[in-house]
Specification:
This protein is an alpha/beta fold and 202 residues long. 40% of the residues lie in helices and 13% in strands. It has seven helices and seven strands.
């Protein structure tokens, strides 16, 4: 068992090590990095983490992470509100925004349907998407979900739920390799996939 010269260092390493993808060695390196910097750095980092937990919320419209009830994208009058891009997580919103090829708005599901992981349609923000379409003004829904069995299952389920409405349903072109997550797709490929999107066929 590793012995620390400081109980405060040990506690910091234990807490940092709880972050996903952070092993004990990396946690120790990060903790020592904080120790080496001046006190203001530690306070700024602490405040940023505290604000992240206390002040960040979810947009009541699209469910993306936001600083207020309505995120900057949904509050922007220059966006095309007739086109909604359906994504799995906030990370996908950031990746698509980086391409600067999409001027519509988003709907973050918060995951994909995965019975093996215990994720059902009722665990996701699918009903709120249906309600957005039901309110009118939506001309196109774009599926930008992972090219996986779970992503395809989710697209199929939503497609069935939206069949009663007249909006067009499309999906990003399969320039994204099968099994790939959007966040690991290069911006040029993703931009072309959005631009060359095709009609969704169940």
């Amino acid at each position: 068992m590793e012995t620390f010269s400081s109980k405060y260092l040990e506690t910091a390493v234990q807490e940092i090590g709880k972050l996903p993808g952070i092993g004990k060695k990396t946690a120790l390196r990060l903790a020592l990095h904080i120790v080496r910097h001046d006190e203001n750095y530690a306070f700024s980092l602490s405040e940023a983490i505290s604000n992240l937990k206390r002040k960040v919320c979810f947009c009541t419209t699209c469910h993306a992470i936001s600083d207020s009830d309505v995120c900057d994208i949904c509050a922007n009058p220059l966006r095309d509100f007739s086109t909604i891009c359906v994504v799995e997580t906030i990370k996908d919103v950031l990746v698509i925004e980086a391409t600067q090829q999409f001027r519509g708005v988003y709907h973050v599901l918060g995951g994909v349907i995965s019975p093996i992981d215990g994720v059902s349609p009722f665990d996701l923000e699918i009903q709120t998407l249906v309600e957005r379409v039901e309110r009118g003004g939506v001309e196109e829904i774009i599926f930008a979900l992972p090219v996986t069995v779970e992503g395809d299952t989710t697209s199929f389920y939503i497609h069935k739920k939206l069949q009663q409405f007249s909006c067009k349903i499309s999906m990003i072109a399969r320039g994204v390799a099968v099994g790939n997550e959007l966040e690991y797709t290069d911006e040029l490929t993703l931009a072309r996939s959005i631009r060359d999107r095709v009609e969704y066929k169940a």
